[in-house]
Amino acid sequence: MSEEGKNGPPTAGPAIPSQPSQVSIDDFKKLALRVGVVTAAQDHPNADRLLVLTVDVGEGPPRQLVAGIKGSYQASDVIGKQVVVVTNLKPATLRGVESQGMVLATSDESSIVLVSPERPIRVGSTVK
To answer: What span, in angstroms and rounded, lies between the C-alpha atoms of 20 and 83?
Structure first.
């Protein structure tokens, strides 16, 4: 298991899995990544590992997102947190609840960590 360094990320850990096939910059540019803020969160009614988030992404009404982060976050932990959201995914229904985008996260062998700006930034800002 990796340990937290005094001034940064873990210094050792398991090997990073192999990379998926490469995509072109044009394919990457098709993704709309925006900074949002979680305004509400609740447990998913039909799944133990999912949270249902309400996220303001700075355009239109707040979006409902279903996120598989409950193993690392409680609903109250994420309210007010800035997150990065893929805003142009087709809506999908996850265990009976519609998700209108995807919140970005990373994980290791022990936890899931939401991707968020280093410092507070305007809601709706484009991630480049």
So the answer is: 24
pLDDT tens digit string along 61-113?
999 999 999 999 999 999 999 999 999 999 999 999 999 999 999 999 889 99
Question: How many Å separate Cα 7 from the centre of its chain?
Answer: 24
Predicted TM-score (pTM) of this structure: 0.82
**Number of domains the chain contains:** 1
Q: For position 86, which CATH number holds?
A: 2.40.50.140
| HEC letters along 4-45 | EECCEEECCCCCCCCCCCCCCHHHHHCCCEEEEEEEEEEECC
Is position 57 within any domain?
Answer: yes
